[in-house]
Design brief:
By secondary structure, the protein is α+β, with helices and mostly antiparallel strands. It has helices at about 10-15, 35-55, 80-95; strands at about 20-25, 25-35, 60, 65-70.
């Protein structure tokens, strides 16, 4: 089933509900700082579980004590869709449990 891209205005309006997330060209992006490399690694594993549940896999980068995401939908021509916003919301929900900020 095709996923429809959201307009720039729709994306900007919805980002108001996701502090720390921003739009960079056609990607939603967010970086988190954590207390240790182990905490960052645990968060990456948790995000990967969410991506599997949603069947929506973003670019996910692990640094020493950082986790970064770049999210867009390939099947929508690389545009931002509702699926991207749902993934961002789910990551925001799990971040505090990992001590991310």
């Amino acid at each position: 089933m095709p996923v429809e891209p959201l307009s720039q205005k729709e994306v900007e309006d919805r980002l108001a509900e996701l502090p720390g997330w921003s739009l960079d060209k056609d990607h939603l992006i967010r970086s988190y700082r954590l207390g240790s490399h182990f905490a960052a690694t645990a968060m990456v594993v948790h995000i990967a579980q969410v991506q599997e549940e949603l069947n929506h896999h973003s670019d996910l980068t692990l640094g020493y004590n950082t986790v970064s995401l770049a999210v867009h939908t390939h099947s929508a021509g690389g545009a931002v869709t509702e699926k991207d916003l749902e993934l961002a919301r789910r990551v925001e929900d799990l971040a505090p449990g990992h001590g991310a900020h």
